[in-house]
Write a structure and sequence with these properties.
Length: about 180
């Protein structure tokens, strides 16, 4: 029985299927939907966002270090008594240490900022410009905590301003090409 202007109610598991899916495929469709819901819940969690931001920051930091190591000045007299293979091994070890060090720093900053922003967004239940600015202020303060109270305030303000600038750039309306 169809009642006009009333949404239909179906029992659980008996909802109408999308076009092109038969009743025999219902179970596999529902299982795929269940796993999709699990993935969505996981990606919306603060832990997952923090881990992804930390891993991405580590990768970007290592890549930047790799690119900047090609500009590093190598003193030819520094490793004068080593063979070419030994020199190459030493240079690659040094590059690896630099990549790890830089990646660790970028990963720490990325994970710290993303985790704080996610917690603030979850607490406020809003997605606006206040979240990245507040998260930037807190993250900048935490990163500068060993340098004294003035540095904490300055680091917080600088990171908040940087976060605001980046977020304004990312939230801008695309140009209308009409």
């Amino acid at each position: 029985m169809n009642i006009p202007l009333v949404a239909p109610v179906f029992p659980a598991g008996k909802e109408p299927l999308p076009p092109g899916i038969s009743d025999e495929e219902r179970e596999s469709y529902l299982q795929a939907k269940k796993y999709q819901d699990y993935m969505t819940m996981g990606m919306e969690s603060c832990v997952a966002k923090t881990i992804i931001a930390g891993g991405g920051g580590f990768a970007i930091g290592a890549f930047f270090s790799l690119m900047s190591s090609s500009f590093a000045y190598e003193d030819p007299l520094l490793r004068q008594n080593l063979s070419t293979q030994q020199k190459a091994r030493e240079i690659f070890k040094e590059m690896g240490r630099g990549m790890y060090r830089s990646g660790k720093g970028f990963g720490k900053v990325g994970a710290l900022f993303a985790g704080i922003e996610c917690v603030i967004e979850s607490y406020r239940a809003k997605n606006d410009m206040v979240n990245p600015v507040a998260a930037g202020f807190v993250a900048g303060g935490i990163l500068a905590r060993n340098s004294g109270p003035k540095a904490v305030l300055g680091g917080g303000l600088a990171f908040a301003a940087f976060s605001a600038a980046i977020d304004l750039f990312l939230r801008r309306e695309p140009a209308d090409d009409d």
